[in-house]
Amino acid sequence: MKKNFLLLIFFIISLNALAYTRAENIKDKLSKIGVNKTIIDKTIELDYEIKDDFSEDFDDKMEKLQNLYAQDNKNFYVSDLIANGYMFSDKKDFNKAKEYLEKGEKYNEKFDNLLNKVNLYTVFNKKKDEKRYKDELKKIYNGTPVMDLLDFVYSGIENYRDEKLPNSSDDLPFGSFYDENTGEIINGIANDDDENDNQNMNFEESLDEINKTIRNSTKEIDKNVEKFKRILKYFSNEKNKQKFSLTDDIYRNLELLVETNTIEKISANDGILKALDYYINNVSNKAKDKEFEFTKDGEMTLYALLYIGSATIKDEKVYETYRKKLKDTKVAKLLRDSEAKTNK
What we know:
Strand content: under 5%
Helix content: 55-70%
Order of helices and strands: HHHHHHHHEEHHHHHHHHH
Number of helices: 17
Structural class: mainly alpha
Number of strands: 2
Largest sheet: 2 strands, antiparallel
Strand order of the largest sheet: 1-2
Shape: globular
């Protein structure tokens, strides 16, 4: 699944949490229920290969997952991944997603099972069941940082659904309908119309749309500063991370949200040099080596923001100094390494 994070909140936090990687999470979960080491290792390898992304090579990825699942049907981590493929891809299938989530329920944690159901029924717009499982989670976690986190998760899933789902039948092209089981518009021609609408926008209208999105996102997050503080503080504890499977890549992406907004404010109030210093000394060095492929988009966005911002430095020597500093950061190195692997 492509993770789309909002722009950011102003909040600086000292992140001294112990590492909890995806690999460690998989090993912890599966070893407890008796999955053997060979299958655990294969699960870790495949998880890092797929990277939560079913937008490409769907059939190949699904075949690998199903072959691995056939080796041990206790492997709920893989059955959940298969279900996610049928939820968060162009090949949506409600029945198959539900089937594979149910296969893993016996071995999975209660929290994960409830959240899986929320995701399933939200994506396929089954509001009654969606509300039922949200209410169950609320009874358990209301008033806690976990509920704060769930609110953001819900928002992301709802946004994903609403991007795919027409508001009503009136929004569909003539002769088309929405299939609840697949999440697809059948016989639709909406994509061509949308593309034409975008092409007809002039540059000022396009910039206005971008500005509107950024401002609305920033305002929304500014209203939730305290929630973010509670979430990050709560999950800086390793036991809480492990209990709710909040791995380093998820935590780092939350951190990047925070730090990007912090840097934007520093740049606006104190200038680009202060913003660059803050990034170089406090942000880039915390990038996660093992989980970088899961956080690369956020890392690249922030790095690019500062790299482009450095072009406003008037003094040529100062400009060259900071450009070199940026290229020497841990993030720049990891981005180059990632690019080299991709181009092999």
